[in-house]
Amino acid sequence: MTADLTKTSSASSIVDKSAAGVDARQYHIGVAPGEVSSVALLPGDPFRVPMIAEFLTDVVEVAHQREHLTMTGTYKGRRITATSTGMGCPSTAIAVEELARVGVTSFIRVGSSAGLQPGIKPGDLLVSEGTLRNDGTTAAYAHHGFPAVPDLEIALTLRRIAEERTAGTGTSVFSGINASDDAFYAETPAWIAELNALGILNVEMESSALYVVARLRGLRAGMICATSSNLVDGASLYDGTKDALKDGWMRSIEVALDTAVALEL
Question: Which CATH class is domain 28-262?
Fold first, then answer.
């Protein structure tokens, strides 16, 4: 009599990852309940977390594991957390899932993004109204037709405050649909032209996962990015625009922080 190797594990021994690590120190990002706020700003690059900390008081570095650096401090009397997601949807989904497990309920991504419509300059601010899901991570979470959209109130408040903060500065604010891609160097001229023809405002690599995970978990999310380059105008951060990009980052961070305060996130 031969054993049935397809039935070597009982159903009770299979790990349910949806319940793993709830209210405990998180395996990937290294944070625990009580160490974070109810709202988190999410840059991609861990080196931009200290840029957020420049706006905060009483800053504490909570953890730094892999690409995930977390700091918590106070802004205008409100506790704020900043956690880097790393590049792309897979690590972003992990960061959002684990932050939610320890008490974060609202997320605002503050990142870099490439413009896809004429007239968008390096340093300009881009507020997301929704994302074209050109990634693999969200396909594991939801039907391909499931929309990746931000919390409406967060998106509208980001836009309003961004316009107020940039009035008279020469920095423009745009809002619209962006795309999330997985493969930075696989973005061909044909793909860029297709996105442009669809009226897609900009392209980045994280918001699709942020929005889908947030919706499925009953969380709130939004995104404001600084323009790094323009893929249809040819303006690039490689052409001496890094100062403009840094200025854009700082403006986007301040807008996100003021949104968190205004909405009491």
Answer: alpha beta
Question: The pTM is what?
Answer: 0.93
Which stretches of the chain are assigned E, i.e. beta strand?
39-42, 57-65, 68-75, 78-83, 106-115, 125-134, 173-181, 202-204, 220-230
CA dist., res. 22 & res. 20, Å (int) = 6
Helical spans, DSSP H, in 102-222: 152-166, 189-197, 207-216
226-248: b or e for each residue (b if 16 or more CB lie within 10 Å)? bbbbbbbeebebeeebeebbebb
Using CA atoms, how far residue 44 sits from 18, 85, 258, in Å, is 24, 5, 20
pLDDT in tens, 30-86: 999 999 999 999 999 999 999 999 999 999 999 999 999 999 999 999 999 999 999
Bridge-based pairing of strands 220-230 and 202-204 is: unpaired
Handedness of CA 163, 59, 213, 196 (dihedral sign): positive
Contacts of 131 (CB under 8 A, 6+ apart): 148, 149, 177, 178, 179, 180, 207, 208, 211
Domain edges within the chain: 28-262
- Cα(225)–Cα(245) distance, integer angstroms: 10
